[in-house]
Write a structure and sequence with these properties.
This protein is of the alpha/beta class. It is 39% helix and 16% strand.
């Protein structure tokens, strides 16, 4: 008789809840930090042409040479930094952990932060340690330094800005952490387009720093393309755990074309930043809300009876992220992605009714 899953599937994997993606059909979708804008019709036409002529009978360029060259240019990467591409930055986190997960190796981050750091550590059998953020979600630098000393992590992840809190950590504190870390520090700049602050230009200052970015928040979430930048000394080892051809022909072609229109992507990010300011002011003016400052394309806010407000928003056709119950520091918290002006108006109107 065949064995049962209990005998075969690792306990910690069976104990996991599958990553839940709620049905959003017909909703104003403000739950996943997507860019609400599509590319203009002429660019989409050009993409259709590229896709029609793509050689999908062939494996992709394994080194993604043309795309990497364009990315280097677009992202202001230092000339001597190396680059690895991933099927989203999620895959890069996985590669980093697979390459470093020796017996008893640890990954360290803060709490609350991007949930995939913890989850992927569990997939890779890496110990995961997290240091609580302060009440205002700033870094507790002293506790971080103590944790570095105590746990000697192979990897430190810092999301800059942080998800789900939206804030940028203090750059000097990050610098102290990089200098004190016994292993690699990965600064995850997924929301860079909305923050304007970066460690990318400072790679040469630290020999244990890697910087991660994604195109997901800049209008290309459907493509799945993330990148990791840093010294060749580190990246040529990380690259060995990358599955061959992890970035497909169509992703390479479409990303290359989209990056030719960088000014369009930048303009979209500027509109989103302006809407973030407007949304922040309107949210702050609502009775009983506590709004956290954001340098990302989403806003975290606290309100009484968050689960009820979340359901009331949903009934009115607006989907946000309910973080209540996910972590004690996030009790009463909802996270809303900045949408188009019209979507934001619909969210604000629905929220006004839901709070009433
Ligand atoms: N890092 C952070 C901080 C994120 O919030 C996200 C997406 N929610 C990612 C990485 C992953 O992005 P992707 O896999 O789409 O590149």
């Amino acid at each position: 008789m065949a064995s049962k899953p209990e005998a075969i599937i690792r306990d910690e994997i069976r104990a996991l809840a599958a990553y839940h993606v709620p049905d959003s059909s017909g909703m104003v979708k403000l739950d996943a930090m997507e860019n609400p804008y599509r590319l203009p019709a002429d660019v989409r036409g050009r993409i259709a042409e590229l896709v029609a002529n793509a050689q999908i009978n062939r494996y992709p360029d394994a080194a993604a040479g043309a795309l990497k060259a364009r990315l280097r240019d677009a992202l202001g990467m230092p000339e001597d930094a190396e680059l690895i591409l991933g099927n989203g930055s999620d895959e890069l986190i996985q590669m980093l952990m697979m390459a470093t997960a020796r017996a008893n190796a640890k990954a360290l981050s803060v709490d609350p932060t991007f949930v995939m750091f913890r989850l992927i550590a569990s997939y890779c059998r890496m110990d995961y340690v997290s240091v609580p953020l302060q009440a205002d979600f700033s870094l507790d630098t002293e506790r971080m330094l103590i944790a570095l000393e105590k746990h000697r992590p192979a990897l430190v992840f810092l999301a800059y800005p942080n998800n789900p809190t939206g804030n940028l950590f203090d750059a000097e504190s990050i610098e102290r952490i990089i200098r004190a870390a016994p292993g690699l520090v990965v600064v995850d700049e997924a929301y860079h387009a909305f923050a304007g602050r970066t460690f990318m230009t400072r790679l040469a200052e630290f020999d244990n720093l890697l910087v991660m970015r994604t195109l997901s928040k800049s209008g290309l979430a459907g493509l799945r393309l993330g990148l990791l930048a840093g010294a060749r000394e580190w990246l040529h080892h990380i690259d060995k755990v990358r599955l061959p051809y992890n970035v497909g022909v169509l992703t390479q072609l479409v990303a290359e074309e989209a990056l030719q229109h960088r000014s369009l992507l930048d303009q979209q990010a500027a509109v989103i930043r302006a809407e973030r300011t407007r949304l922040d002011a309107a949210l702050s003016a609502m009775p009983g809300t506590n709004v956290y400052p954001s340098d990302a394309n989403f806003i975290l806010f606290r309100t009484a009876a968050a689960p009820r407000v979340f359901d009331a928003l949903k009934q009115r056709g607006v989907l946000v992220k309910n973080l209540h119950g996910s972590h004690p520091a996030l009790d009463g918290c909802l996270r809303v992605t900045v949408g188009t002006p019209d979507e934001n108006d619909r969210f604000l109107a629905a929220l006004g009714e839901s709070l009433a």
